[in-house]
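Researcher: Sequence recovery benchmark, item below. Answer with residues only.
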């Protein structure tokens, strides 16, 4: 019997990452799951089949040394990563650029951009060596459609989009695939994080509209992974039916 493939999912302690972990475990895959919340990682590991099937890495993805060490420490049975799902990320605040916190900006850059780079750069060489592998990045509609207060979050996701395209250009001829999934409004812990635990502000994001679910995004990841090896879906924007981009805005006196 062949060995089940391995998917590494960053940010598996909630939302898209957790839903993807549950789906891939259900389909018989082995998982490497990461996040900062150790207890949630351990709970998920237990639920999804224990240490033989699920390896946990507790680190802050913006800590380059911690990320590199986690790869060095991977057990041999998890060292061949078939799919890297670069999902960990966050938005902080919705203030206009001249009023926002520079600390929040820095944290978004460190997490959404640098963290994604650390994981990608560490995993890629072995994929290229094997001439097999798949990097799936979680971008956002925010990378395509800027909105007031989105400033650095939008910028970080535009980076993910362009980086995905450029890495794909580098990887031509290696068989390693790269996709960028760009979801719209999805109900996860995302808004609680953005609004720093202000539950009523977070709830308003989803009130009166039908958002995507984490499961919708996990299903998309599963679909991508099961496309034939000669097919590369480069970008995939996934909006709720009840969301669309708006017209240009005008200031009038
Ligand atoms: P959640 O807040 O539910 O999940 C975010 C995950 O990222 C958590 O597992 C969290 O783990 C992890 N994470 C955040 N910061 C760090 C860090 N510094 N180090 C390690 N892990 C970190 O949000 P979503 O599931 O919605 O978000 C997942 C991705 O999807 C993000 O990149 C987000 O930008 C993107 N996205 C979300 C959309 C939405 O509307 N929800 C739409 C489009 C894109 P922990 O806290 O344990 O560290
Ligand atoms: C999350 C979706 O519209 O809040 O990436 O930026 S949005």
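Model:
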């Amino acid at each position: 019997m062949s060995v089940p493939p391995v998917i590494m999912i960053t940010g598996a302690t909630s939302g898209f990452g957790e839903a993807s972990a549950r789906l891939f475990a259900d389909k018989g895959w082995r998982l490497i799951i990461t996040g900062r919340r150790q207890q949630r990682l351990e709970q998920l590991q237990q639920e999804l089949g224990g240490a033989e099937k699920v390896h946990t890495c507790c680190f802050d993805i913006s800590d380059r040394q911690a990320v590199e060490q986690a790869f060095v420490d991977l057990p041999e049975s998890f060292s061949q990563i078939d799919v890297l799902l670069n999902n960990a990320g966050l938005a902080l605040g919705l203030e206009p650029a001249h009023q926002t916190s520079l600390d929040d900006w820095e944290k978004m850059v460190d997490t959404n951009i640098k963290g994604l780079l650390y994981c990608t750069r560490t995993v890629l060489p072995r994929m290229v060596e094997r001439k097999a592998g798949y990097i799936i990045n979680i971008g956002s509609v925010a990378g395509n459609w800027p909105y007031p207060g989105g400033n650095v979050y939008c910028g970080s996701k535009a980076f993910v989009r362009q980086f995905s395209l450029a890495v794909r250009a580098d990887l031509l001829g290696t068989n390693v695939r790269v996709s960028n999934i760009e979801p719209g409004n999805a109900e996860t812990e995302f808004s609680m994080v953005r609004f720093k635990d202000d539950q009523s502000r977070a709830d308003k994001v989803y009130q009166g509209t039908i958002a995507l679910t984490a499961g919708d995004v996990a299903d998309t990841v599963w679909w991508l992974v099961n496309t034939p090896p000669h097919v590369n879906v480069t970008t995939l924007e996934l909006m709720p039916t009840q969301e669309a981009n708006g017209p240009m805005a005008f200031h009038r006196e």
